[in-house]
Each structure stands twice: as structure tokens, then as C-alpha cells.
Amino acid sequence: MKHFNHITDFSLEELQATLKQTKELKLNRTSTPKSLEQQSWGLLFYKSSTRTRVSFEVGIQELGANAIVLNSQNTQIGRGESIKDTAIVLSRYLHGLVIRAYDHSVVTEFAKHATMPIVNGLTDFNHPCQILTDIFSILERIDPENIELSALKNKKIAFFGDTASNMANSWIIAAAYIGFDLVLAGPNGYEPTHEVLEKLKAENLTPRHTFTNDPIEAANKVDVINTDVWVSMGDEAQSKERKETLADFQVNEALVANANQDFLFLHCLPAHIGEEVTQAVIEGPNSIVYDQAENRLHTQKAILAQLQAHSN
Ligand code: CP
Ligand code: NVA
Q1: On the chain, which terminus has fewer CB atoms closer than 10 Å, C or N?
Q2: Which phi and psi angles does 116 have, rounded to 5°?
Q3: pLDDT digits (tens, 9 = 90+) for 114-145
Q4: Can you give the pTM of this predicted structure?
Q5: Which residues does a 6 A CB cutoff place in the pocket of ligand 1?
Q6: Is 229 close to ligand 2, i.e. is its CB under 6 Å away?
């Protein structure tokens, strides 16, 4: 059974094919092949969501399937039913399940027991649908006619702020797997975690990231500037200290002045304007944040179509 829990669950050829299909699906939205016809897919949320929930629900419908949205608290999981039993039972009804959870082991445990594809819709560890979308969003700006992963090889990508977060982890894994240089700029105590370095080791990947405390150095002549919230879902108890510690890593006009003139600004959203990014940058001419949000729909449709093709 093929799952999409990490981008490394797809071979590089499968990722490339998914990105090309994303472009096709984006160009021909009204004539989407109904590759999930007659199916029912579940969307299980332990955490809030706007983009993931709506883009998956719409995408599943456009692929010809029925989407069922579940909140963990309103299911028997909220009353202690095991993930094993839930995964086995839901596999008897559904053809696939997208899960957004806190602890990454929840998604891994579902994948272990389910007999349907499991798709990771964000955990505290990573956000594979988002990172693949972000990569597509960069590639379509480099050359909309030719969506080629190899175009990232000579691009310099930087991530600012919470460099120990799920989005930073996703960039670290993508850099090592796809093969591009990534610089992470964050304070001491926010270095790439043991967990993400272990993941690289487990996949036999050579790290391609560097970590610095100097945001200006990190922004120097970069092609892509990326950030994310300083307080991720689940981190609320440390909100005050995080905002103080991360304050020097804000993406603002002074910082982006160091980047290449045609740099792209990325943020997975939701954003906290005035914290990790200023209004001038997120609404500026280099920002592609709304294209990124739209591309979640097209990329995820391609991911689901790939998973379906694999199980045929
Ligand atoms: N970027 C993202 O996953 O957004 P949501 O939390 O709104 O799903
Ligand atoms: N790092 C953020 C991403 C939200 C899409 C969080 O986990 O809350």
C-alpha cells in the first residue's frame, strides 16, 4: 500500500510526474479526469485548517469522489478508541484518508494498519503536501512550460524564523532528497532537530542545508525567501518567549533588499503580519503566497491521482 507521509514516499520520478500532472490539472481544471470515480475519501482533522480542508475536499470532488470530513473529537478516537481499530474499520468504508495530526506517530500508526492510502495533511514533524506545492509554485515561475525538478539545482533557497518547525523540516528533507542548497536562519535553540537529521539518515540522504544566526548573511543573493509562523499549532504555551526569541528573523523590506531582485517570497499561510513577515513583503511584487495557496488544490489532486494509479 502506497502512502504519502513524506515526500520520500514517492520516488524522484514519481515526484516529477506528480508535478507535471499538477500543471496539466491546473491548466484543465474543468476537465479533470475522474480517477477517483465511485470512491469515498475521508479527511480527519485533529487540528484547525482552512486551505488543507477546503482544497482536499474540492479536489476529491473534482476527481469524482465523495469527501467526508471528520473531526477527531467527534469520532470515537476522541473517547479513546485505538488508531489501529479506527484505521482498520475506516479502511472498510473509505478508499483513502487524509490526516492532520499533532504527533507524527498518529499518521505513521494509521499507515501501518490501514489498507487504503494515507496522506499526511500536516503533523508537528512535516507538511509534505505543502512542500510539494511550494516546489511546484517555484518551478512554474522559473518556466511555466517545463516543470522540471532539476531547475532547482542552481537556486538558492532560504528559510527564516522557526527553523525547527514542520515547514523547516519539510524544506530540509526536500533539499536533501531533490538536491538543492538551503540556508536556514534562526536563533540558537532552533537548529534543525535530531528528529529531522535522523530522518535524513534513515533515507540515506546527505544534508544540503546550513544553519546560521545571521539573517542578512542568509538572505544574500537568494532566489527564494520562505518563512512560517513563529507559533505553530500546539506551540501556543510558549507564544511569548517564541515571539521574543524569533523577533530578529522577521522577513521585512530591509532583509529582502539583500536577495536577488527577482526573488520569490513564499509563506504557506496563515500568516501573522507584523511578526514573521511585514505587510510590505507579503503584499509586495515578489510574493506568490496566493498562488501557493491555490496550487495546494492542483498539487493534491495530482498526489491523489498518483496514489490511485499505484493501487490500480
Ligand atoms: N497551509 C496550510 O496548511 O493551511 P491550513 O492550516 O489552512 O490548512
Ligand atoms: N507551522 C504551521 C503551519 C500551518 C499550516 C503550524 O504547524 O501551525
Answers
A1: C
A2: -140, 160
A3: 999 999 999 999 999 999 999 999 999 999 99
A4: 0.98
A5: 49-52, 122, 130, 268-269
A6: yes
